[in-house]
Amino acid sequence: MAVVAALSARTGLHADNATGGYRAFTRAYVAAAGTLRMQIRVYDEGAARDCLFVLGWGNRCRHRNVQWLIDQLATAYCVHAVELPTHITDYRREWVGPVQEYAADLGEFDLLGHSAGGLTAAHLNADGIGNRVYLSPWWDSDFPVPGPVLDAIASLPITRPFIPIDTLDADAIGNLATAQQLADAPSSVSPAFLRTVFRAQRSLPPARDTAAAFCTLTDAVVDPRAVGERLPADRIQLYDGGHEPFSSSGREHTVETVMDVLQRGPDAL
């Protein structure tokens, strides 16, 4: 189709037809060391407006529930789905920077970020960003460890993931979470990873007037109190379920509202 050919010629993306019902192209960002760091898949059925969707930590487009959400978005948008690298040591260089670079070429677009993608997206500053929607953004953590102890662990000069995490199970993620999702979820983190995530959380810019967030008060993965600290109540939509609204029962209603807010702004709440 013409729009697909034009997209491929403009971006240098290559066809990837194994990711779902929509025709997808993949763009890979490569770090200075030459290792693959970030994947961006574009789902284009000729929609007039773009949506930059920054996935959460460990989320991949091949996951059934992620693909379900992308399919909903693709009814109204050309979707640019960003898969964040898992084990990082510098959030600006490995998360924010590549997404910022990609966003600079998009023109006008609406922005959606989930979890770590919501943390990354909140740092983005581009003239073309329209409405911003954050799903369970990782703006703070609620680890069962005293803050000073956690800071001491994060200060260790170690980049190898060895600290186990056990919160990414079906009860926490959502009752529709698949076996593949859970198997692909990160099982450990490094002190360097914790350190850079804490820096990202503590250096968040003020929330924009076009921003809204969706969260559940029973989130066991991120601390939803941080959402209330950054946004007024009339720009926050609560839902029942796990950390991933798209992996929880009742997702159809939740995502219908997400689509309304993405297209019309926080006044749609």
Automatic annotation (TrEMBL):
Enumerate the Pfam families for this protein: Abhydrolase_6
Top-level taxon of the source organism: Archaea
Note the Gene3D superfamilies from the entry.
alpha/beta hydrolase
Q: Which InterPro entries match?
A: AB_hydrolase_1, AB_hydrolase_fold
- For the AB hydrolase-1 domain, which residue ranges apply? 66-248
**Which protein, by its recorded name, is this?**
AB hydrolase-1 domain-containing protein
Species of the source: Haloarcula argentinensis
